[in-house]
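User: Study the shape:
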Amino acid sequence: MRTEPIAARHAPVHGLRLFGLGLALAWLLLDQATKWWILEYVMKPPEALRIAPFFNLVLGWNRGVSFGILGGHELPPWTLAMFSGTIAAALIVWLLRTRDRLVVTGLALVIGGALGNTLDRIHHGAVTDFLDFHLADWHWPAFNMADVGVVCGAAFLMLDSFVRQDRDAA
């Protein structure tokens, strides 16, 4: 039987929640700050800036889903914003219920990224993309820091599923 106070048993969970919510907010702010910098200073006037032989800064507007999927269809920006916001809310609930630091980290990055792109859709009617990696004439679709958070967060969640399988098997 445990003799420590209830607050002591739950302190790490509260700290983990604060860490997750703080990381989500930090990633959201990083995303919005980089988009603001690109729009207000770097792309005045809009042009492609070669940074390295494999990397440019460009200005693009994604009116579709990830990497421009459904971009040719005229979906109202609020539809995708509501969809992203709903997913972010569900992920926040998951974050508040989990006790695993890797899962919290992954969820926080996905939440911060989803909210960053949601704010773009609300404010601009589209998502601001500006990172352009390429190999010769083959260009990956332009993306932003919110997308980096979503992809890295999803990778952390997948890594956790493999680590958890290994722990459960042992």
Remarks:
- Strands lie at 49-52, 55-62, 127-135, 138-139.
- The helical segments are 6-42, 77-97, 101-124, 145-169.
- The two ends are 27 Å apart (CA to CA).
- The chain has one domain: 24-169.
